[in-house]
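Tutorial, part two.
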Amino acid sequence: MNFEPAGGPGGVNHGWRRMEGNHCFNPGVNCSDGTLTPPIVEYDHTVGCSVTGGYVYRGTSLPGLTGAYVCGDFCSGVIWGARFAPASGWSSTLLQDTDFFICSFGEDENGEVYVVDYVTGSIHRIIGFTP
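Running the prediction step on this input gives:
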């Protein structure tokens, strides 16, 4: 997952297709020349196959989730919350392990976050998480 700060210059190169996360993809070695902006958080294919981006949680139903970037994986159904802490940097926490094929997230006018299951076409509001 990549991050572009508000007021940043924009247009940075996150490395695709030369890199997948922090790892060389094409070519398989020596792919970073120092000009690429690395991801803030990554996971490998033992965890999932394709990250589905989401939203920063700004709702009120789950105060422990406020400010976390909620995202998931299409194949594994895992939902994470990524946060930045000044002392330690970015980290991600498992929020839910679902049986969804996560293809999208949504956000309502109150900042509550929803997840979409590709297989069933159903939309689910995130109402809890495992801290």
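The chain has a mean pLDDT of 93. In part three we will examine how such features are distributed along the chain.
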